[in-house]
Amino acid sequence: MVLHETDWQGKIKAFTYQDWQPLLALIPKIEKTATFGEWSGSNKGAGGQFPYCVPATIVSQFIHIVYAMPIIIVFDWAAWDEGRKILRDETFDFDGIDLLTKCKLITAIVRNDRFCEGALESAFASGLMLKILKSIEKEVKTKLR
Asked: What is the tally of structural domains in the chain?
């Protein structure tokens, strides 16, 4: 399930602390995970198979949760220059943006993975997704408890 541009802000703002728990419960699991996916297949000539990324269980759980909550938003993420700048800045302070923007960033990463194999696993491996999730946790604890 996805949220549409017309009503996504109200729905996310209406989430309770408990609504966020499935996603936030992944944080300690992510911190303990060493590998977030592996490449499989090979390019063995004309009839060969191209390599593809097999996500780790934690990544599959994450995908299931973000669609089930839902926090995946229908918007033109590919044209969202602000999000691209944020995601490229390794020193960006995610605590300086609101919850809605963090959900848009998650959407952009998840959707990009459908076009760029391994992008989601890379966001986990680099620590980017963990930074976003920890910032969400901080904001949710502060505002909703």
From this structure: 1
